[in-house]
Amino acid sequence: MERTLSIVKPDGVSxxxxxxxxxxxxxxxxxxxxxxxxxxxxxxxxxxxxVHKERPFYEDLTDFMSSGPVVVxxxxxxxxxxxxxxxxxxxxxKNAVPGTIRADFASDVEKNIVHGxxxxxxxxxxxxxxxxxxxxC
Length: 137
Ligand code: UDP
Ligand code: MG
Fold this sequence. Notes:
By secondary structure, this protein is α+β, with helices and mostly antiparallel strands. The chain is 40% helix and 19% strand. It has 7 helices and 4 strands. It has a 4-stranded antiparallel beta sheet with strand order 2-3-1-4. The relative contact order is 0.25.
């Protein structure tokens, strides 16, 4: 069993695909163990994406991530990290396999609907960034 953090980003919330993203996760047998909606401050977004602080897209990305509400969730299952990444599709929707969330709904490389932890190391810092142990069922 593995846990991962996923986020429906502000573009996914405004495009009304929160349910669709969750449906795709659940339909593969993955379990939602924690879920909430919140609005990140600019500093919250910068902290979450701190690994990208030297990248040219960091400022724009953190503006975007704090531009509206997001839905954060903990997902659990066998190979949850890679399963969620597979359902998401490539970072740039132009390169995403048809039928993936990003291929179907994302508008560009920044506004790409969904986040998923990329490794067990990142999951283990990203999950407690949003959820206390008591909030994970
Ligand atoms: N991003 C961007 N421009 C880029 C690469 C990434 O705006 O050239 C944004 C995009 O929203 C992406 C996030 O930064 O989801 C984090 O980038 P990462 O490389 O970690 O992609 P992911 O793991 O989300 O596929
Ligand atoms: Mg990433």
